[in-house]
Amino acid sequence: MARKVRTAVFGLGRLGYWHAVNVTKNRHAELVTVCDMSLETAERVARELEVQSYTNNPEDVFQDETIEAVIIATPTSTHFELLKRASETGKAIFVEKPLTTDLNDAREIQKIVHTNHTICQVGFMRRFDPAYAEAKRRIAAGDIGNPIYFRGISRDPQAPHESFVEQSGGIFIDVSIHDFDIARYLMNSEVTSVSAHGNVLKYPFVKKYDDVDQALSYIEFASGAAGDIEASRNAYYGYDIRAEVIGTEGSIFIGNLREHDIQILTKAGNTHDILPDFPVRFKDAYTIELEEFYKVVLAKGIPQITVDDGVKALEIAYAARKSYQRGQKVKLEMLQSLV
Ligand SMILES: NC(=O)c1ccc[n+]([C@@H]2O[C@H](COP(=O)([O-])OP(=O)(O)OC[C@H]3O[C@@H](n4cnc5c(N)ncnc54)[C@H](O)[C@@H]3O)[C@@H](O)[C@H]2O)c1
């Protein structure tokens, strides 16, 4: 029988719970323990998923030499310490985006991961979503000519809970980072500058954390292409994730609002349902990204999304936040002096 990668999951909240479920379903993996700061949560999830142990102490995982891989899905402000310990103790790492809230911390992790030859895959799951992946294939095949404009829309149905916002790094680092990563990937070019704007339209509490609930980033690429990225916490109607890549010979639309491909016709009109949240919209992508992770761990290979991609996306997000705060365009080459 093929070897199974003994795995621990850190953080069992909105997303980590689903990662734990997906590990139990993955034929290359064995979920041996779950770790959450709340022992009650860890115990509940362990019981539900029939996992043999649970803990609220990350060191229990790091000291266990039989655990080969960890999945980090804790609040972003806690990633740095967990990433560092995981790399130091020789674990393969799958870490949720963003790598860290602080760019210097991310760069330190990048060095540590490279020095220790740690496998470290970052959770930019859109790259594995069937629609985004097909768009990548079509663009690479030249179906729309040269890509010249990227448009990304990421709207959440509401603001996350306050402690999440506090530990998230803000909307550019927490939300737009998905689009910054997928934009680099689809356009096959690095972002060179960002001009960002933002406002608080619905959730005054985010002001406490120098955050906004509606943001717009205009980006320029080394290739000469450009783009715009909207991030919002105000899509009352549902979870709305879309993108468009315009090329010199065509355009690709990615994603739509529907959960099921049905229309309901009544006297009230013609309606359809709307995707409610990220676990539903990206169910396949979360499964596929872990499938890829375990293939890499078993082959001792290099992930498709590396720590370097994590740092690049965070640099763009940092530039966006700086641009919003200063009210001026920020060039990525100037970032060093601004961090
Ligand atoms: N890829 C995506 O689509 C996506 C979606 C949501 C969240 N995320 C990312 O996943 C991470 C978690 O987000 P979430 O929404 O699930 O958060 P959450 O607040 O819902 O859950 C976090 C969980 O981690 C636990 N925790 C906190 N500190 C811990 C520590 N030091 N050790 C162990 N457990 C700890 C908390 O008790 C909680 O159960 C964040 O980095 C976020 O950016 C990614």
UniProtKB/TrEMBL annotation:
<dbReference type="GO" id="GO:0050112">
    <property type="term" value="F:inositol 2-dehydrogenase (NAD+) activity"/>
</dbReference>
<dbReference type="InterPro" id="IPR000683">
    <property type="entry name" value="Gfo/Idh/MocA-like_OxRdtase_N"/>
</dbReference>
<dbReference type="GO" id="GO:0000166">
    <property type="term" value="F:nucleotide binding"/>
</dbReference>
<dbReference type="InterPro" id="IPR036291">
    <property type="entry name" value="NAD(P)-bd_dom_sf"/>
</dbReference>
<dbReference type="Pfam" id="PF01408">
    <property type="entry name" value="GFO_IDH_MocA"/>
</dbReference>
<feature type="domain" description="Gfo/Idh/MocA-like oxidoreductase C-terminal">
    <location>
        <begin position="136"/>
        <end position="332"/>
    </location>
</feature>
<dbReference type="InterPro" id="IPR030827">
    <property type="entry name" value="Myo_inos_IolG"/>
</dbReference>
<dbReference type="Pfam" id="PF02894">
    <property type="entry name" value="GFO_IDH_MocA_C"/>
</dbReference>
<protein>
    <submittedName>
        <fullName>Inositol 2-dehydrogenase</fullName>
        <ecNumber>1.1.1.18</ecNumber>
    </submittedName>
</protein>
<feature type="domain" description="Gfo/Idh/MocA-like oxidoreductase N-terminal">
    <location>
        <begin position="6"/>
        <end position="124"/>
    </location>
</feature>
<keyword id="KW-0560">Oxidoreductase</keyword>
<comment type="similarity">
    <text>Belongs to the Gfo/Idh/MocA family.</text>
</comment>
<dbReference type="InterPro" id="IPR004104">
    <property type="entry name" value="Gfo/Idh/MocA-like_OxRdtase_C"/>
</dbReference>
